[in-house]
Amino acid sequence: MSSDTKFYGLSEKDNWRTPPKLLNAIREHHGGIDTDPCSGPLTWIGDYFNFDADDNGLVQMWIGTCFVNPPFSFKAKFLEKATSEMCRAHCDTIFFVTPDATDTKSWWHEYIAKHSNYIWFSRGRISYIGEDGKKAKSPTFGTAVSVFGETTDEMLAWFSDNGHLVKTVKT
Description:
The protein has 171 residues and is of the alpha/beta class. The chain has one domain (31-167): Rossmann fold. The protein has helices spanning 20-30, 75-88, 105-115, 153-161; strands at 35-36, 49-50, 64-68, 91-99, 118-122, 143-149, 163-167. The chain has a 5-stranded mixed beta sheet, with helices on both faces. Strand 3 (64-68), helix 2 and strand 4 form a beta-alpha-beta unit. Helix 2 packs parallel to helix 3. The chain is globular, with a radius of gyration of 15 Å. The two termini are 28 Å apart.
């Protein structure tokens, strides 16, 4: 993988902060977030490790429970890294935010369908937070959160109550 961090923020669609409702649910029902490999200015989500563009989360080791809201222009690179990190066994669980584009064979079928344990599709569009810290316009697409690894029954119940949860079947 490239160590080039020039890709961060290349597109307007790359600067969406995660809404607190989702982060708070993961903290409360899963037990916290250890690593955020896609931190932005003033958006450190991880309790222990936060990697911004200068640190380049693509070349860092991810540890514990990770929350990944990548620059969407480079979601495939971060998905590749997520599956690699899960194989190394120092990540317990990765919550990974993407558009809900299941028809996108290039990244969805290669990484999410093959490797995730659960996929949550939000009910309605998620209202992200803009770079200014205020509620941004909703994107023109739905949002999915793929869970690599296991999570708690409480987290799965929250996902079910707030959208549609799919458990993937490995063959």
